Amino acid sequence: MGITLGIQELREKTGRATAFRRLARLQPAGGAGDKVFPPTYEGAEYALEERVIDGRRVPCALLDSVQSQANRMELALLAAVRADRIGIPVIEVDFGAKGLPEVGTITSLEAPHRIADAIIRDSVDPGSGKPFRTTSAGQVLDTASLGNATGLFEVCPTALLFGLWDSTGPRGGLGAKFQRTLVSELVGVNAALGVRPSSRIDPLGIQLNAGPLYETSDGGWTLDEGSARREKDKPVKVGKDGKPSEANHGNITPSLKSDAGEPNHGGVTLDHALQTSVLSLPALRRLSFPLNGKRDPEADLAARTVLAALGLCAATLWFEQGCDLRSRCLLAPEPGEPPTWEVVEASGETVSFALDGDGACTLLVNAIADAKKTGLNWHDEPIRLVPSDGLAALVGKSRALAMQTTAGS
Questions:
Q1: ∠ Cα 301 304 305 (to 5°)
Q2: Angle at 146 between CA 185 and CA 119, to 5 degrees
Q3: Which of 46, 94, 96, 258 has its CA 20 to 30 A from that of 334?
């Protein structure tokens, strides 16, 4: 038997229960047995491991890591902010104001380390020119702790939800550090590795021995040795040997092997995929939110309730957007297995509740209103910054070098 999670129930569970969790079973959108492609990590490897499920060791493949899930949920919150569904504190860095319109605006919901990210650290207040860390919003990092999370709550509450380590601040490794309170992960269960064939039939019929091709000074290629770019008075061939394939011409022989002995990234087939999302309520209860230097139990509960609502909102909104993780990794809920949120009580018993995106947004709006009544501040309008001259110059130079590399490849 389920419950209806209204604002009062949310307050009660935040103050006493163990966790909110959701388990979602999914299948490839192409149907059971269709192949999906996990992320590839350093060394050209999939993250494969055995997990104990229902008492058995089962081969599994990581489809979306905890860090990736957090980033996706933050982007779902950003989309809701831009659609005026919710209002939450966001820090914006406008690169267009420094002649980089193609970069646009980077927010604290996109920066990898949130308010402690180097992008925000190396930005300035556009009015005063003060570095961010010396502004009132930036200075909250200097005093933030489990016992004093009020400042972070007011300017970057997602840092308290998805985790933060101010390791590049003035205190180095002793800087403010907060664990993740919302953890989500998506794995493929009973995963079997596949193979990926490679081939290309060239409609022009260009032969392998039709070269050599030489580089030209404008980044192109030529068959004419006399028109080639020269180094040490010798014509420079395209690639290693000047073969047409170095310029992406000619056939590719059908093969199941990868180049240079690398693993064949042939995707996986699954019994099913499983998303596990857990919001730790004891972790929220370790946070205190003093007002004017004094502890206020009502403010503490109100702030924790906002963070719980924010976590429910982030996870629910992302799932409603659809689980399109990357090319050839689109998942859909398994028929007859709709995702359901559960409250894990202190006793270990569970009770379910339904929550859609609109309901989650309403919970968050109501929780914020209650928090404001206790005297807690909440920045509904974004904190706007611009990159420092040094950061803008660094980005501009990096983009110019990238264009040169692309043109010369």
A1: 85
A2: 65
A3: 46
Contact 388, 138 (CB under 8 A): no
Q: What are phi and psi of 184, to 5 degrees?
A: -135, 145
Predicted TM-score (pTM) of the model is 0.87
Q: Give every CB contact of residue 73 below 8 A, 6+ residues apart in sequence.
A: 162, 182, 184, 314, 315, 317, 318
Beta partners for residue 344, in sequence order: 19, 350
Q: What span, in angstroms and rounded, lies between the C-alpha atoms of 314 and 341?
A: 13
CA dihedral over 148, 172, 111, 273, signed as positive or negative: negative
pLDDT (tens, 9 = 90+) of the chain, 409 residues, equals: 689 999 999 999 999 999 999 999 999 999 999 999 999 998 778 999 999 999 999 999 999 999 999 999 999 999 999 999 999 999 999 999 999 999 999 999 999 999 999 999 999 999 999 999 999 999 999 999 999 999 999 999 999 999 999 987 777 777 889 999 999 999 999 999 987 666 667 788 888 889 899 999 988 999 999 999 999 999 999 998 999 988 889 877 666 655 555 555 789 999 999 999 999 999 999 999 999 999 999 999 999 999 999 999 999 999 999 999 999 999 999 988 777 899 999 999 999 999 999 999 999 999 999 999 999 999 989 999 999 999 999 999 999 898 876 655 5
Question: Omega into 212 within 30° of 0, i.e. cis?
Answer: yes
Distance CA 320, CA 316 (A): 6
How far, in Å, CA of 220 to CA of 212, rounded? 14
Element (H, E) at 91: strand 91-94
Q: Between 357-373 and 7-16, two packed helices, what is the crossing angle to 10 degrees?
A: 80
